[in-house]
Queue: 2 jobs
Job 1
Amino acid sequence: MNFTPTEDQLAVQTTAREFATNEVLPKAAEIDREHRHPAELVKRMAELGFLGIAVPEEYGGSGLDHVSYALAMEEVSRACASTGVIMSVNNSLVCDPIYRFGSEAQKREWLTPLASGKLLGCFALSEPEAGSDAAAQKTTAEKQGDDWVINGTKNWITNGPVADVCVLFTMNDKAAGHKGITAFILPMKTKGVRVGQADDKLGIRGSKSSQIFLDDVRLSEAHMLGTVGGGFKVAMSTLDGGRIGIAAQALGIARAALEDSLAYAQQRRTFGKPIAQHQAIQFKLADMATEIDAARLLTLRAAYLKDAKQPYGKEAAMAKLFASDVANKAAREGIQIFGGNGYVTEYPMERHFRDAKITEIYEGTSEIQRLVIAGHLSKGG
Ligand code: CAA
């Protein structure tokens, strides 16, 4: 593993940092306060090539690697975790499975506009009664003539209210369990698709999520992604990659907590000196910085392995497990450093605290990451 970023990786990181600092950060508090989908920032991310970073250029992407993707995700999420997750869902959960499992025609029709940011995607796996237990799908897909007819409800679908296209998971054969799950590419304007009220959330309030109701939705065979019964593997392998994106998002939130804490501690004075000169605060800052570096190494290792086409599921789960914990600790300690000012919305720390929590829940809870890691260990991985 090479610790020196390539020229391309550095260029993406620099572009992402400038975009995040100059265009995203000034709006982050307002996006959170207003629960506003940052459409203008999504448009800018499309222009910068951030919505399909690791997709080959021939399919509308930037043709870069997953290390570049992780670096860019950290920068954008450092400024605004909501904008970060909009980016990660489109890259990891929508473009990636269409690239890996889609037919040539599907790549031309759907991947190209998604990776170039002309369309925005969502990923609908979770249901009211199937979150961690992803194989317990109740949404049905029934073959009727040449078409599939789909009925059911999806829950907490990030980008749901603003997406044009959905990578959708259905159960076509309940008796077959996870081997009865089939994936589809669903245009959100298809008759019978209804998007629920946007969820009213603790954090990442600029990221719109909702239920999606599917009522006799009719799709042709051309919309099936992968094979009949192959959907669970599409979902699981997609989430392996998604976890790199969420680890990088968590890293961005943790870095925001550290950088804001450091700046505050250098100007806030108690007992005759800046609080950054008190050992109690120095220890907190040192721990935050050390843990963030460790989380970054885990995240970049998983991305590097994905780029090297080596197994990376265990490493991605480790990265997400650790980075999400680091983000939550950093935000908690950040509030402590800010004291009363950490508890009010005038300062950014309470937003980091609220935003950090979701990284321990979506794309597999921390408990699920431990199950995935333990599963690999038991198989000698
Ligand atoms: N890649 C490919 N195949 C995989 C795989 C992977 N990573 N993991 C498992 N599989 C395959 C297995 O090989 C097995 O196949 P065979 O039957 O052919 O051997 C099959 O899938 C079933 O495997 P398991 O028995 O391990 O499956 P399980 O039902 O016990 O579930 C689980 C395993 C890890 C708990 C899984 O259900 C899981 O990851 N749950 C969490 C779901 C999740 O992350 N949801 C997030 C929703 S999306 C989201 O959050 C998006 C957002 O808003 C931002």
Note: The domain at 7-120 is CATH 1.10.540.10 (Butyryl-Coa Dehydrogenase, subunit A; domain 1).
Job 2
Amino acid sequence: MTAEFVVVANRLPVDRTTDEDGNEAWRTSPGGLVTALEPVMRARGGAWVGWHGAPDEEVAPFVHEGYEVVPVPLSGQEVAEFYEGFSNATLWPLYHDTVAFPEFHREWWDAYVQVNLRFAKRAAEIASRGATVWVQDYQLQLVPRMLRELRPDLRIGFFLHIPFPPAEIFAQLPWRREILEGLLGADLVGFQIQGGATNFLRLVRSLLRLPIEQGVVRVDGSHSSLARAYPISIDTAGFQALAESPETLDEAQRLLDDLGHPKHVFLGVDRLDYTKGLRQRIRAMGELFAEGRLDPTDTVFLQVATPSRERVDEYRRLRDDIDLLVGRINSQSPTAGRPPIVYLHRGFPRQTMAAMYRIADVMLVTPLRDGMNLVAKEYVACHPGLQGALVLSEFAGAAKELRQAYQVNPYDLNGMKDVFVQALTDAPRERARRMRSLQRQVRTHTIDRWATTFLEDLSHAGSDRNQ
Ligand code: GDG
């Protein structure tokens, strides 16, 4: 089997499930990258190369939703060193403004190189002559160059879903040159916002001393690489249709019944990750309840935290911290009924998420740093009418587009508290004005447009082919 269009990502877009009779099946998995790219694959077909999620196991390729799924094996040690180590305990905190301390270990780096090479080789095997290969995200930054060396006939794109940090932070990385050179193997390197592209180009100039003109890096005599921003989005119409389906309406009703029909609902939906600003958000809400600025008898704060990376130490600590914080706030509530914070540490079907977005009067999206943040856009797509309110951190990529959200600095607790209350109490006309503008943005800038624009630019970018 070969394919003309290949996506390469650390994880496959499917999770294995086993039913009561022991039958195995594959189900589309949650997460930002998958939410964004799965509709693109369904529409275009091709192959998706990635790890299937279980260590020390070879899985044969199979077809899912009309495209080919090509599993890449990882050993238990590679999961620990490449995935949990270098990807999630070195690069993830480093690229998110060092909001947690990045760890540098040489053996993690060795595993990163080894696994990147395996992904590059697998993609090289299945890409047809002159094919387009689209490599995704921070776990695979060496793949573009490795792939170009294996297969100079390919058109290679790369998209980084997380922020690309300022030079002062990136420069800490002992392997900074290798990463930059790895990315420059692509004909087109995409970032969420222009700031990421600018940071990258500045580093290329200062560390590699390569000539750059209008975002195009001349890498060598035959290859150049364009760096540009492509803000990612969602399947807006799909989310809207889901939110309006009779099943979702029923589910929203059930949710309100369970919550005891509060007058006001605040909502947070995040992977349980230290970049998402959960500690600060929960403290701010806790203080508002404690000070009586929000009344726990008629207001609830529903916070979903999807389990994530539970084998990485920093994530375990975060989980404990949040349990403690929520427990403390709820235990001090003056009322005996439903607690002010309903905290759910588990994943939900997409339909339940849509029902939650429907019933939320105020959506709290307050990351300390975030590449884009799709939850903010999903809320705008799903919440009916014009009376919802989106509170959005200025440090999320989405803040560059969703200008009319109630923007906050998540490090400023008092400022955040004021805006949380303002978002709830502003005049209906003001809320409608903001919401109308957000809806216009999310309806015109869809995932389809994102993918089409990137792939169209990729078809013109880069090297002279030697086919
Ligand atoms: C990375 C970047 C960038 C969450 N819990 C459940 C669930 N989700 C879905 C949400 C949303 C997605 O996962 C999360 O996307 P985000 O963008 O908010 O965040 P990351 O996972 O950190 O994504 C981010 C993104 O990549 C895309 O480029 O925006 O900045 O960090 O779609 O709805 N979905 C379901 N159940 C859950 O419990 N079904």
Note: The chain has a mean pLDDT of 95.
